[in-house]
Structures are given as structure tokens and as C-alpha cells.
Amino acid sequence: MFSVPNPRQYICTKYAWEQRKLGDLGSVAMNKRVFKEQTSENGEVPFFKIGTFGSEPDSFISRELFEEYKLKYPYPEIGDILISASGSIGRTVVYQGKDEYFQDSNIVWLKHNNHLDNKFLKQFYSIVKWQGLEGSTIKRLYNKNILDTNISIPSPEEQQKIGQYFKKLDETITLHQRKLDKLKQLKQGYLQLLFPQNDEKVPRIRFANFDENWNLCNIKKLAKVFIGLVTSMTENYREEGTLLIRNSDIKSGKFEFADNPIYLDEQFAEKNNTRRLSLGDVITVHTGDIGTSAVIGAKESGAIGFATINTRPNENMLDSNYLSIYFNTTNHKNWATKMSTGDGRSNYNLYDFNRVMIPLPNLIEQKLIGAFLKKFNNIINLEQSKLNELKSLKEALLQKMFI
């Protein structure tokens, strides 16, 4: 586990902060214009356009042109914060000193001659409200918007301490993000190996002492399939009562409810008692991210789904965790998408769902696979929670600091 830096070690608030405009502290700079005929698909120096800003370049300029323009015209210094000024405005990239060039007017930076600490400025950019753009649909950040924007600044020494603190916090967030990404990649690898692919009869890796071929079995022979509510009943929504599970509440292997979950009036819920979900039922997204499933636990038992397809496995034939994990595999999601009946929106119906064929080992092997991947999901969810907490901490600190 990575430790979160203590802000008291870095931040001092002894002196009052000063309200200034960015234009009082510097000027907007950009590279010399490069024309399309001066670029190529292959070359010596990457040329970043707004569409490739922060990612991989698809254009290049010659070394000769780069050296000429770098010498004669404005060019960022190491640590300068480059800003996207069109499209998704306000995205930032820290210039690290590599030989690369940037599209004029679309990618700019504030040349401030060390009036600002760049690490401090980078954090300000993450929450800034650009002057003249609030509530605007304009997708262009002009120099005036930047220069007229207000910023509160402490002393140079305190800027450095604040910048250093958030740098450490960002590094901690990045480490957790990388760990989470690796865990998700590893899980996807296991999913590919623990389930048969294409026309294979068995998966590529198995638990010890299992060697029988798997079978394909229709879902209707293994479970009871039923649907959730199919029409909106907002007049029956309450602040307490029977929990309503919507498609957006279902994630891969878990539930994520909003801060204020929706409940149904108990009398209305009783009229739809046959739609109630029981412990161990598998609830599946019917429209949108189709195939995404989770297993009903004690907290969700008794709930009713809205626009969901629900499965109640025969416990002597089918393991709930195994089924949910299979529904979340790429193979099943691809099949579900092909069966989609939606016009521009993924949607598969009960008829198609009843045609699902489940690759099936014996029940003991199912339980081992289900338990293994459920544990893996729990580790991923725990890491995601840590990451979310760190991001929330950073956001709260920034809001208190700059607003």
C-alpha cells in the first residue's frame, strides 16, 4: 500500500494569498505555425496536433525545420504546462524537454518567467474556470480568456511546497492507477484462459484433477429466466421501500448505486412480487452495456430490477458466480451485441437471451472458477476504492485551496 503524503509537511498558510490575473504574471506563447505540406507521416521530430496532444503523434517535421523554428520563435522550457486551446479545452501536458513541436494556437502555454511555480500552476489548471467561458458552448480558449483568468497565489516558497505536495499525491494516484490497470489486464488474461475459446472443448488452463470436456447447455435448462419491470413507474418511487436496480447500477461483478438509490412503494412492489430478486440470482444489463452482470447478495435480496434480465440458477447444475463471470466475458458480450435489436443502442431481448448457450464444466469446477474470479474482482474493487479515495482527497484539497 502506498502512503498518502501529509499536507502539513509541505503547506504553510502563514501569509495571505494574493489575487492576480494570469496576464499580470505572464503572456501566452505558442509555436510558429507549421503548414500541412511541411509535415509527413514519418520523420525525425514529432509534430503534435490537437487531436494527438497527450498521446501518440501521427505527423512529423524535419530536423532542419525544427532547429530553425526552435531557435527563431517561442519554444517551451522544461516544466512548462502546455494547454489544449480547442476541442477538449484545458487538457494539460508537462513539457519534458524532448525534441517535439506543437500546433500553433491550438496548443499554448503561459510564459511567466518564474513568477509562478509550474507544479503549483498545473494543479490550478486542473480546477480553473477560464474567464469568459463559464456557461459557454464555445470550444475555443482564446488568449484573452487565459490572460483575464484570476488566480490566487501565495509566496513563491509556499507555491513550491504546495506544488511538491500535490506532485507526491499525483505520483501516489498514478501508482494506484497502474496497479489497477495491471489487475484488470491480468483478470482479462485469466478470463481468456479459464473459458474455452472459439471451438475449443476445454479451457487452456484448469484447476488440478479436472480433465473432462466441457459441454454447451442452453440457459433455460439450467436456470429460471425472468425480466424486471419494463415500464417506468416514477410515481411509485420512494426514499425507502423496495430497492430498484437499474442498468446503470450494475457493473462487472458488482453494484454501484448512486448517493440516493431509488426505492419502490411497497404496495406497488408486492404487485410485482414475481419480479423480486433472491440471494444468488444473476441480474444482467438488458440495454446499454449488454451482458454486464452481477450476483444478488444479501444487501440486494428482495430488490426488483428495471429493464433487466434476471437468472435464477438451479443450484444443483449452475453456480451463480460462474454464470455472472461468463456473462461478463468478451465472448458473451460480443455474442450479445450481435443479437442486439436496438437501433443505435445495444439491446437484446428475452427471446435472444433464452438462446444463450453456456460453456459448462461440472459443478465443482464451476464453483472453483467462480470463487477464484470473484476473489479477483474483490481485489480489483478494493484497489478501485483506494484510487477513488485518493482522487476525492485531491479534489477536496484543491477546492479548499483555490476556491
What can you see in these coordinates?
This protein has 403 residues and is α+β, with helices and mostly antiparallel strands. The chain has helices at residues 22-25, 63-72, 118-127, 143-147, 156-194, 266-271, 320-327, 330-338, 350-353, 363-402; strands at 18-21, 27-30, 45-48, 59-61, 81-84, 92-94, 101-102, 107-111, 150-153, 215-218, 223-227, 237-238, 242-245, 250-251, 254-255, 263-264, 282-285, 293-295, 304-305, 308-313, 357-360. The strands form 7 sheets. The protein has a 4-stranded antiparallel β-sheet. Strands 11-20-17-18 form a 4-stranded antiparallel β-sheet, with helices on one face. A 4-stranded mixed β-sheet has the order 12-16-13-19. Helix 3 packs across helix 5 (156-194). The two termini are 31 Å apart. The model has no long low-confidence stretch (mean pLDDT 90).
